[in-house]
Amino acid sequence: MPHRDAAADRFFRFQSAPCLEVDFDGGLLCANPAFCRVAGRSEDELQAAGLAALFAPEARAEVLSALARGATRDVVSFDLPLERPDGERRWLEWRGVSFPDPRIFRIVAHDVTALWRAEAEARERERFLGTLLGNLPGMAYRCRNDPQWPIEFVSAGCEALLGFRVDELLDHSVSLAALLHPDDATRVWDEVQAALAARTRYLLTYRIHTKSGEERWLEEHGRGVYDASGELVALEGFATDVTARMRAKLELHEKLRVIEEQKEQIQHLSLPIIEVWDGVLTLPVVGVVDDQRAACIMEGLLDAVVRTQSQRVIIDLTAVDEVDGAAAEHLARILRAVRLLGAEGALSGMQPKVAQMLVSLAADLGGARTWPDLRAALRESLRVAPARPGPRPR
Q1: Tens of pLDDT, residues 209-223
Q2: What 3-state DSSP class applies to 232?
Q3: For position 219, what pLDDT does the model report?
Q4: Can you point out the beta strands (E) in the chain?
Q5: Calpha distance 51→70 (Å, rounded)
Q6: Please, what is the end-to-end C-alpha distance for the chain in angstroms?
Q7: How far apart are the C-alpha atoms of 248 and 254, rounded to whole Å?
Q8: pLDDT of 153-180, one tens digit each?
Q9: What is the mean pLDDT of residues 284-301?
Q10: How many angstroms separate the CA atoms of 87 and 54, rounded?
Q11: Exposed, middle or buried, 285 (CB in 10 Å: 0-12/13-18/19+)?
């Protein structure tokens, strides 16, 4: 060990930082207790092993090279992990001063293991998030709450979604507001501001135009980010392409609209109310009369009676093979309702099964007459119809 006075030796021994002295060839001359604790070895073991032996085999050449460089300079410096006997690695910053006479380095080693681990974890988190966000089918973002939506962060998914690279969005050469469909821009702003005012998340569905001019539908989930004082600092969220879903939805709505129109047309065709003479209506009923159809017949027929001020109504059942109990009851109600409106109701062309159902229900037909066929019912209705100026067949 090089000669030191008692005060210097006490300072060396009780120094809280790990300290050691090595010669220019890497021989370890002495180490203070703090360094022994970090290394996990006694001072005798350290002196027997030498400095290079404290490092992993692949790092030993670098240590000796640093010492060789330090032999011609005033300072030696390197950052390498130390290998403890228990297998643990401790990351140290080695900083030393060379003394040509007696050819030694006095080195202070700063243990930065906690910092190194924190940085390694941060790098791993950054790598993980980059991989995760890069594989998501959409775009994660952070932007300011401004009508132009200036971007502060955006994931790589922006290129597949919008057609623009990350750098094009970050340098604000492209405005997100400019990509919004003009019909959706005001609504998007209003919905975001309403969510911020309520301190809630927002869910948006809107159209954009990509770099190539293609129109796409996006669905965006986001929320405001606030500082410790509660001030809004940014918006963060995730947007994904829902064009296929929205187009399918719009196509479905269009098909439903067409079906509804066709349904109305079919209902109109299935209710051929004919004014055959002034004051005389006929309604030929074709097919099965179920509960829903009977209700439509009642509504349409009563409306026609009031509109035409008809006095006689003939419901022709020639083409009806059978009715269920609910439909039979509806027919009876229709005839009673016609009577309440001041008109006389009649049934013509009734099939045996229909007659049996009406009888089994003891249906009250409101005094309506029945005729074997429509011709007979019309002959009687026209015979008793009151004369009107200028009557003519319809």
Answers
A1: 999 999 999 999 999
A2: strand
A3: 96
A4: 19-23, 28-31, 75-83, 89-99, 104-111, 139-143, 151-154, 202-209, 215-226, 232-241, 274-277, 280-286, 312-319, 344-348, 369-371
A5: 15
A6: 131
A7: 10
A8: 998 889 999 999 999 999 988 889 999 9
A9: 76
A10: 11
A11: buried
Q: Is 314 within 8 Å of 346 (Cβ atoms)?
A: yes
pLDDT at 243: 93
Between 118 and 8, the more confident residue is 118
- Alpha-helical regions (H) of 136-242: 158-162, 166-170, 176-179, 182-198
Other residues' Cβ atoms within 10 Å of the Cβ of residue 120:
11
| High-pLDDT (> 90) share of the chain, % | 32
Tokens representing residue 361 in the block: 């229900």
Single pTM value for the model: 0.48
CA distance 48 to 36: 13
Note the residue count of the chain: 394
- The residues, any chain, with a CB within 8 Å of residue 190's CB and separated by 6 or more, are none
* CB atoms inside a 10 Å sphere around CB 163: 18
Tell whether the model's pLDDT for residue 200 goes beyond 90: yes
Q: Report the C-alpha gap between 226 and 347 in whole angstroms.
A: 77
pLDDT in tens, 119-144: 888 888 877 777 766 777 789 999 99
Which residue from 378, 369, 312 is spatially nearest to 341, judged by alpha carbons? 312
| pLDDT at site 103 | 84
Answer for the pair 295, 326: CB distance below 8 angstroms, yes or no.
Answer: no
In the chain the domains, ranked by start, together with CATH numbers, are 6-116 (3.30.450.20), 136-245 (3.30.450.20), 271-384 (3.30.750.24)
Please identify which residue in the block is written with the tokens 């009734």. 350
User: Rounded mean pLDDT of the chain?
Assistant: 85
